[in-house]
Automatic annotation (TrEMBL), chain A:
<dbReference type="Pfam" id="PF24882">
    <property type="entry name" value="WHD_ORC2"/>
</dbReference>
<comment type="function">
    <text>Component of the origin recognition complex (ORC) that binds origins of replication. DNA-binding is ATP-dependent. ORC is required to assemble the pre-replication complex necessary to initiate DNA replication.</text>
</comment>
<dbReference type="InterPro" id="IPR056772">
    <property type="entry name" value="RecA-like_ORC2"/>
</dbReference>
<feature type="domain" description="Origin recognition complex subunit 2 RecA-like">
    <location>
        <begin position="62"/>
        <end position="241"/>
    </location>
</feature>
<comment type="subunit">
    <text>Component of the origin recognition complex (ORC).</text>
</comment>
<keyword id="KW-0235">DNA replication</keyword>
<dbReference type="InterPro" id="IPR056773">
    <property type="entry name" value="WHD_ORC2"/>
</dbReference>
<protein>
    <recommendedName>
        <fullName>Origin recognition complex subunit 2</fullName>
    </recommendedName>
</protein>
<dbReference type="GO" id="GO:0006260">
    <property type="term" value="P:DNA replication"/>
</dbReference>
Automatic annotation (TrEMBL), chain B:
<feature type="region of interest" description="Disordered">
    <location>
        <begin position="528"/>
        <end position="571"/>
    </location>
</feature>
<protein>
    <recommendedName>
        <fullName>Origin of replication complex subunit 3</fullName>
    </recommendedName>
</protein>
<dbReference type="GO" id="GO:0031261">
    <property type="term" value="C:DNA replication preinitiation complex"/>
</dbReference>
<dbReference type="Pfam" id="PF07034">
    <property type="entry name" value="ORC3_N"/>
</dbReference>
<dbReference type="GO" id="GO:0005656">
    <property type="term" value="C:nuclear pre-replicative complex"/>
</dbReference>
<dbReference type="Pfam" id="PF18137">
    <property type="entry name" value="WHD_ORC"/>
</dbReference>
<feature type="domain" description="Origin recognition complex subunit 3 N-terminal">
    <location>
        <begin position="55"/>
        <end position="355"/>
    </location>
</feature>
<keyword id="KW-0539">Nucleus</keyword>
<keyword id="KW-0235">DNA replication</keyword>
């Protein structure tokens, strides 16, 4: 069949691309040994301010795109009522899209929103709140219809997960349109990525009185689910809805790549660490730093040389004292060791020359 | 409300509920009082709904109905879906139960025998403080190993559920546990608690087996076996399961537990999983379920061939589903799910699909007449705008009668079609031809040569056409194979086949008569063997070959008479019957196997949108998210970026830019280089000394505008934009962040789609 033939082709293309990429790395490694630290990174504070001030490109077009998805809303409602779950994917934040859909179209059922992009989400709390909402919903419904008294016990957060799920899965509502809806932003997010949460979400999704609308952003999300979850519990109906809206909230907890691993950060932490050390230790570090500035093309300072210099200047009295200083430096990642071409160990500071100069000024 | 919200984009929640964004979860809203019309949503009210739709008031509304989705109209497709799907669902359950019922009965029998053995060994439920030690045999746990013949355990979940129901209805206490109850994390407490919860209906804080003992000693519980079903044994934690078995066997006299475990692999699976200590207390017994392909054939037969619900699938969809089953997944569950999606999409997309109800009504003609007369004008028009309407010869009379007779024609031809497919399947069974293969071929609108082919060819796109070559073997298709092989059938099998045909062709009188005739010839053959010594009769053919080719001519003579006139006793004559059967089947295929897609108005009952089904069924985030990033302007339709062709423009989405730049790197991307090339893109060439790529020429006005913008782009904002774009790629999972070992590189994850 063509789909599978295509798959084979794709697979072939995929592996070929992969090996091409690997080859490029072999040949390209020498060319691009540029350091991230060569970028003159602005102060982290300033960077964060700048990040929050980024103007969204194509704002108008994004709005148009979101409006165009409104024509799908009736379809989505239909599919939810048919018993499917909705899974939205495509590039761009789908947060406002899902919440807009839920608040305009799902007005006759209770809706809970889970922010899966946060670091931790307690699924048990979600389930117990959901059970309370359903209970209220059923109570109101009964009052409207026959007025029969509820035999079901009111769910409370003290009940076990099993009981709450059993309540949500109850057949107490014969009409299949009495349900509560769970909107899950980033069902593949860090807070929900573990196996246990996914199992609970799957069981929640399979409850007769619960419908799930979820969004994913990670390309490998499908690996979170086994066939039981996919076919019998989540029962997804996939929709490709790229929005190109910025991941404003979703990205809040990610470190900024230039800020965290850049030199600015390292030089600053180095200064803080050094200031807390003894003057002798600081002086040992200075010896190493001056040597590195003077011989920037060398691989580092041989430990014997360092010992000799330090002893001359009365900074250390024995090899042991020097070693204790070096261990301290290593623990704080101020220095690293590597083997010199002639076989002896040498130490070096993993910072650029400018950074070292700045550092010396700061502690000097 | 809707019309207002249609014009405005979704309100940004970032602005109005910033606090909620940082809550793990929040209540968006509770249920508002429902609108009146939805309250009374019961199935079977379609007719009245439609009547109300056709009233003048509703007709005025119908324009806005289409856009906004008025409640009345909304309910119609949903009710039709519920109506049809509940029928399909019930049929599937019945079919599966029918397949399994004999095994279930055997299991039940075994449960009863095991229970009586336990009873004879001690007195279950007796109030001794601890079971007295008797001989070792009574401390065994009777264990049924149900071989599922299927590595995919999903398909068997339903089977075990049914088994539980079956045993429950035969007076057993049944507990269903799964591998989730036997995890190392929750330990032995987890499964014992589940056991208690299901039996006693309350969850104690601690798992205590003595509670179970006192529960079982109550008079209403006593006297029945407790069956514990574990549907996926191999996935359980071996240690926990072993411990569970050891505990149960100590109490087996007081709590007569009988285990039933689903085994997907081989009979020695328990040996591999359990400790030898636990293993020695099991007294196993093996049961075997049907294989997935057997189940599939049975479901296909009942669902898509026999059950005429007014929901059918087109050829391409059928081929897709077959391949999805055979190559993609291999589970009946996923097939059913795919069918359900197809069904919901059909009722959603085809406004007239609710007419399917007529398929099941006794007098469908008058049902459709009534329905169609009350149709609003738009819907009426809808019917005649269907592409298949071009198949109607007389275009001038597009009246309700035409529509109704078209629908009735679909129904009656569909019935004939089903009969012939079943006959073909029976013939193909001798050569292990799968029903799904015959089914797909029978649906192919291009199968029949001639006028039909030409007319329909135009509408079939190329997606699945070349698949035929590698799968369906165009010239020697499954149907012709099935037909040809009849020639070689021995008389006993032929007679068996004809008897089944007689049943299947009850709806087609002409064919039925011929089948009877062939049967009587065979019967006579059997008789003639015994009468051989009498030397009765010379062979006389009943019908000439020419006659059998035209089954529409109704025969006058009764089959019995015809049989009495015929005698067969030589080899040659036996072959003649086989040949006649071949001819008959060929006629059936030629005259009655009309693919639904070759009929006018078939779209009302037939789902053909394979692409829609596929995208809803199998999302492809890995590919699509990359396509989004690489071809962003095809979605945004902005005026600034779509002229660019291949080159990158500063106006493009930042994440798009860096992802496209990333394509030029190997599996490792040097962050410094990456940042510099990003900078070079968003700043014009004159401003960047390190800029490696030249940007395309802009129109003059734009250039000026860009130049003005450039001045305001500070280094901080460039870095911020880069950081944010990298974060966004990280969210999509297309990047691996720098490690300690490689602080200056990020790693690419995806290479091509």
């Amino acid at each position: 069949m063509d789909i599978n033939d295509l798959d084979d082709d794709e697979e072939f293309g995929f592996s070929r691309n992969y090996f091409l990429a690997k080859e490029m790395r072999g040949s390209g490694k020498k060319k691009s040994a540029q350091k991230l630290s060569d970028i003159d990174v602005v102060d982290e504070q300033e960077l964060r301010v700048a990040v929050s001030n980024i103007e969204t490109k194509h704002e108008k077009e994004i709005d148009t795109l979101l409006i165009s998805y409104k024509s799908l809303y009736p379809k989505w409602v239909f599919e939810l009522r048919c018993g499917f779950g909705l899974l939205m994917y495509g590039f761009g934040s789908k947060k406002s899209l899902l919440e807009d859909f839920a608040s305009t179209e799902l007005t006759d059922c209770g809706v809970i929103v889970i922010n899966g992009y946060l670091q931790s989400v307690n699924v048990k709390n979600v389930v117990s709140t959901l059970a309370e909402i359903l209970w209220e919903q059923l109570k109101t419904r009964r009052r409207f219809s026959a007025g029969s008294t509820s035999k079901v016990q009111q769910p409370s957060s003290s009940q076990s997960m099993e009981d709450l799920l059993a309540f949500l899965d109850g057949s107490n509502a014969k009409e299949n349109d009495c349900f509560v809806c769970v909107v899950i932003h980033n069902i593949d997010g860090p807070g929900l990525r573990d196996c246990e949460s996914q199992q609970y979400l799957a069981r929640l999704a399979s409850c007769s009185n619960v419908r799930v609308v979820a969004s994913i952003d990670h390309v490998n999300t499908a690996l979170l689910w086994d066939k039981k979850m996919v076919h019998t519990q989540f029962n997804w109906c996939w929709y490709h809805v790229p929005t190109f809206a910025p991941y404003k909230v979703e990205g809040v907890f990610f470190p900024l790549i230039l800020a965290c691993s850049g030199t600015a950060q390292n030089a600053k932490t180095a200064a803080i660490v050094l200031q807390s050390l003894t003057p002798n230790a600081q002086s040992v570090f200075k010896v190493l730093a001056q040597h590195q500035l003077a011989h920037s093309d060398e691989e580092g300072m041989p430990i014997n040389n360092l010992y000799a210099t330090c002893r001359e200047r009365f900074l250390v009295s024995s090899q042991m004292t020097l070693n204790s200083h070096l261990t301290e430096f290593k623990d704080h990642e101020l220095i690293k060791t590597r083997r010199h071409s002639d076989g002896q160990d040498c130490v070096y500071i993993p910072l650029t020359s400018e950074a070292i100069t700045n550092l010396l000024e700061e502690i000097g | 409300m809707e019309s207002e919200s249609l014009d405005s984009p979704p309100a940004s929640p970032i602005a109005n509920n910033g606090e909620n964004n940082l809550q793990p979860f929040f209540v968006l809203h509770k249920a508002l009082p429902r609108k009146g019309s939805r309250k009374a949503s019961e199935t079977g009210k379609t007719r009245s709904k439609l009547a109300s739709l056709s009233s003048p008031k509703a007709a005025e509304k119908s324009e806005e109905t289409k856009q906004v989705g008025e409640d009345d109209y909304d309910e119609v497709p949903l009710e039709a879906f519920d109506f049809v799907w509940s029928k399909i669902d019930r049929t599937i359950k019945d079919v599966l139960l029918n397949i399994n019922i004999s095994v279930f009965d055997v299991i039940h029998q075994w449960v009863c025998e095991s229970f009586s053995t336990i009873k004879s060994a001690g007195t279950p439920g007796g109030l001794h403080s601890y079971p007295p030690l008797t001989d070792i045999t009574c401390k065994q746990i009777f264990t049924g190993l149900v071989m599922t013949k299927n590595v995919e355990f999903v398909d068997d979940l339903l089977t075990f559920k049914e088994l539980a129901m079956h045993l429950k209805s035969h007076d057993s206490h049944v507990v269903t546990l799964s591998s989730m109850d036997f995890t190392a994390k929750s330990g032995i407490g987890g499964c014992l608690k589940s056991l208690q919860r299901q039996l006693i209906k309350f969850t104690p804080d601690t798992a205590d087996i003595s509670i179970l003992v006192s529960w079982y000693s109550e008079p209403e519980n006593k006297g029945y076996p407790i069956v514990v079903i574990i549907d996926d044994m191999e996935r359980c934690n071996g240690c926990v399961l072993s411990e569970f078995i050891l505990i149960l066997r100590e109490w087996v006299i007081k709590i007569p537990v009988i285990l039933i475990m689903g085994v997907a692999t081989t009979i020695d699976a328990p040996k591999k999983l359990l400790t030898s200590n636990a293993l020695q207390y099991l007294s196993p017994c093996k049961f075997t379920l049907g294989s997935p392909s057997e189940r599939m054939d049975a479901i296909m037969e009942a669902l898509l061939v026999k059950l005429c619900t007014g929901f059918d699938i087109g050829h391409k969809v059928a081929v897709f589903l077959r391949n999805y089953f055979l190559r993609h997944d291999g589970t009946v569950t996923s097939f059913i799910r795919a069918l359900k999606i197809a069904c919901s999409k059909h009722f959603l997309m085809e406004p007239l699909s609710f007419l399917c109800e007529g398929f099941l009504s006794e007098d469908s003609h008058s049902f459709w007449m009534e329905m169609c007369e009350s149709l609003p004008v738009e819907m009426h028009k809808c019917a005649f705008d269907l592409p298949s309407c071009k198949l109607i010869d007389d275009v001038s009379c597009l009246s309700t009668e035409t529509l109704v007779s078209g629908l009735s024609a679909v129904k009656s031809l569909q019935k004939d079609w089903s009969s012939v497919v079943l006959c073909l399947f029976e013939a193909g069974k001798f050569h292990r031809i799968k029903l799904f293969d015959i089914f797909c071929e029978a649906l192919d609108p291009n199968r029949q040569s001639g006028a039909v082919e030409d007319r329909v060819k135009a509408s079939s796109s190329g997606i699945f056409l070349h698949s035929e070559e590698c799968f369906g073997q165009r010239k020697t298709g499954f149907i012709s194979q099935a037909v040809r092989r009849i020639k070689d059938l021995p008389p006993a099998q032929l007679s068996q086949l004809l008897q089944i045909w007689r049943k299947h062709t009850e709806g087609i009188t002409e064919i039925n008569v011929k089948v009877e005739e062939l049967l009587s010839m065979l019967d006579f053959d059997g008789e003639s063997k015994s009468n051989k010594q009498d030397g009765i009769g010379s062979p006389r053919k009943v019908t000439s070959p020419g006659e059998s080719k035209s089954p529409k001519k109704v025969r006058t003579g009764s089959p019995k008479k015809a049989a009495s006139r015929s005698h067969l006793n030589t080899e040659k004559d036996k072959e003649a019957v086989n040949l006649k059967a071949v001819k008959l089947l060929e006629c059936m295929v030629k005259d009655y196997l009309k693919p639904i897609e070759s009929l006018p108005f078939h779209e009302i009952f037939c789902f053909k949108h394979v692409d829609i089904l596929q995208s809803a069924l199998i999302g492809d985030p890995r590919k699509m998210i990359q396509v989004d990033l690489l071809k962003s302007h095809t979605y945004l339709h902005c005026s600034c970026c779509n002229k660019s062709g291949e080159s990158l423009l500063p106006s493009m989405n930042d994440t798009s830019i860096i992802y496209q730049l990333a394509q030029e790197h190997g599996d490792l991307i040097n962050l410094h280089d990456w940042f510099q090339s990003f900078k070079a893109i968003i700043l014009p060439p004159s401003n960047t000394k390190k800029g490696k790529r030249k940007l395309q020429m802009y129109p003059l006005s734009k250039k000026r505008k860009v130049a003005v913008e450039i001045e305001s782009i500070s280094e901080a904002s460039i870095q911020a934009r880069f950081c944010k774009a990298v974060t966004e790629l990280q969210i999509t999972g297309l990047l691996r962040m720098p490690s300690k070992r490689r602080p200056d590189f990020v790693q690419r994850i995806a290479f091509g789609f």
